[in-house]
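Reviewers of the previous submission asked for a worked example of the structure-prediction workflow described in the proposal, so we include one complete record here. The input consisted solely of the amino acid sequence. No template or homolog information was supplied to the procedure at any stage.
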Amino acid sequence: MFKNLKKNYFLFISSFLILYFFINLLSGQRGLISYLDKKQKLDDLKKIEINLLSQNKELNFKNSLLSDNLDLDYIEILIRERFLFGKKKEKIYILENNDTKN
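From that input alone, the workflow returned the following structure tokens.
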């Protein structure tokens, strides 16, 4: 048995090394599967970043409307939305969303 092993030593070592490198190429820490997972996470984080930047821009705009120079139209919109406040002889209708399926 040892004679056969000695004869095929180079073949055994080279096949082991090829198998080792192939497995690490696919599933190692810097392998193909890890690369695809990291790429997916990067895409998700970019989408979250775009969403947060748009929310930040919107909040900065609303904050600028409530700064030193008050925009009375915007304040009126806020009062109407939050407190259901209206002017004299103005009718306010509240529509409830009934999207329940039977």
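The helical segments are 2-7, 9-27, 32-65, 72-83. We consider this example representative of the routine output the project will generate in years two and three.
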